[in-house]
Amino acid sequence: MRVRSSLFIGMMMVAINTVAQNLNQPIPFDPQTKVGKLPNGLTYYIRKNAEPKNRAHLMLAVKVGSIQEEDPENGLAHFTEHMAFNGTKSFPKNELVSFLQSNGIKFGDDLNAFTSFEQTVYFLPVPTDSMKVFLRAFDILEDWSHDLTMDETEINKERGVILEELRGGKGAQQRMRDAYFPVIMNGSKWGQRNVIGTEEILKNFKPETIRNFYKTWYQPQNQAIIAVGDFDVAQVEKIIQEKFGAIPAVTNPKPVGVFPIPDNKDTKVAIVTDKEQPYTIVQILTRLPELKEKTFADTREKIKRTLFNQMLNNRLQELTKKADPPFQYGFSSTSSFLGNYDSYVSGVVAKTGGIEKGLKAVLDENARVAKFGFTATELERAKQNLMTSTEKRLKEKDKTKSEAFAMEYMNDFINDVPSMGTERYAAFVKEELPGIKLEEINALPKELISKENRAVIVMAPEKDKATLPKESQLLEWIDNAGQNVTAYVDEVVSKPLLASEPKAGKVTAEKQIAEIGVTELTLSNGVKVVLKPTDFKNDEILFRSYSFGGTSLYPLAENLDADQSNVIAAQGGLADFSAIQLRKYLTGKVANVSTYVGETTEGMSGSFSPKDAETALQLIYANITAPRKDPEVIKGYLANLKDELQQSFDTPDPQAVFRDTLSAALSSYNPRRMPMKPSDVDKINVDKAFNIYKERFANAADFTYFFVGNFKVEELKPLLEKYLAVCHRRVRRNLTKI
Prior knowledge:
This protein is of the alpha+beta class. It folds into 3 domains: about 30-245, Cytochrome Bc1 Complex, Chain A, domain 1 (2-Layer Sandwich); about 270-480, CATH 3.30.830.10; about 505-725, CATH 3.30.830.10. It is about 40% helix and about 15% strand. The strands form 3 sheets. The protein has a 7-stranded mixed β-sheet with strand order 12-13-14-18-15-17-16. A 6-stranded mixed β-sheet has the order 1-2-6-3-5-4, sandwiched between helices. Strand 1 and strand 2 (about 45-50) form a beta hairpin. The two termini are about 55 Å apart.
């Protein structure tokens, strides 16, 4: 596959020599990262990175979570995380939070932590231009690693905090998860653990129990210190060696353990309902052995799965662009799961009364791929998209935030997934992607789709309990799906977006605002353009435009049409391209443009790569001059909208009800601010809505555009003249603001 950027090619050629010719060779770690292990077993990762400047992102990663808990300890891994902020050897009681907040580190936003099944991780972003604070941060990490005070008074105070967190999280999703998880985990320990714990244990555990848990698991061999930031690597390594090397090694430590899930030949089925669940979701989950990236061959397999996921979900997305979509949302993909497992999950958010239809549609697409495979053109587009995203990441490598690197290293420590580095990965993709054959991708369903180790989960509203399919009916639908599928036909697009190029206008006025580095242009049709070149990102330009107007200009009788005008126009694609064709046309391009019609303004926003600037300007031009109305797709959109609203009204979400009620009260129950009802959908006049959209973008002269990013003003000017200076003034209706 041809790579479009000469700069990218040059960077690739530098890195390509580092790619293993033997795919079975182990993946070497990113050479820009210092990785080491102290004699006591503690691992450390150090990398110099100046994004952001004078800052460092520090982490303590502990390879311990709720799966290590015994039954009386359920919830104590998470409780231990909380206690790290309630007293350590160097920072008694709340002094730690007070010290950090007094130095500009906000608790919750900057200073934070999380606990999951398999890990507990603490985040500590700190300044590096204050050596006092920077050094003190390592004292905090050291205290967290082995010197929490676990004061009984502080433990008892924290019980109430976590109990409130438990109650606050007990929404429909958590209640249903508590019901179905033990079933699909097939009697394993995974199904017996809840990260936050149980109310009984949280209220009644003895302080000595959590102290023993902390002492047992917070040991050097289970921990990693991660430091990424604007600092001297050698100095940081010395700090880590001195502070953490003094922690004694543990003799005969308790192993973190491996927790298998027993195989099941039969399909485990869990059907759960909740009074606050508004819609029905069905998921079919197949448990797979984990594909762990240890060698380059493993990375190649990961790439194949990425391509597979992209192509299959593109097909499912196309089904929503029909007059009668079979579901609200459908998906199928491979992903990581738990422990030493991956999963293949297919699912559907069903329309009212449409469980069978929606589920069958998703499974039919799976069967179509298994029987006929993907097409060569689908694979080529997927490869182009992967190459484009890889290219973009490489271009931005020196703008990568320290936190992103830290998260990669955390993943290596917890899940044993080495970070090969941006350059090496990009070189590997360039080398291997062209050689991935269609038949390799088309063989994947045999590896991924199986009746063994399968589970089916149905989550539905309580009111629908009596009408839900029984277990036997579900399995019959699943096992008999896909019998009459035919091969997919890929509608390939080869023509340009614009049938003819517009005749360029001119820049008629230019003004410099030196104080803020801005150039202000006036185009020959009256459009104002404000340009601000920046170097915050190497491969990104952001833009936004506005014109005063919006839905408030239309009478109440047309408010629904005006409110939906932008969404209805967006369903049809642009010019002669349907929405599906437009997506395919944009393959390999980084150009995102979306329109909006708000209450008092209308306009556009988006982003694009400098290399795709002309494509982005063409999209802007087409959105103004050539919106496309597709009655069949609009019909499907409105049908799904009405069904979604009906489900929400039948089973209202408490938080949504609160937000809607607050909005209505604050607006004195103004009809324009009331939430849309299912019956409102039938009142929408599609033709009128589409015409309102065209009216709002009819007069180019009253729009102002703002472009910010990596561009040169003189290089962008010709595109602005070609595509923005030619959007003709058209007569708008004579409207009076209501």
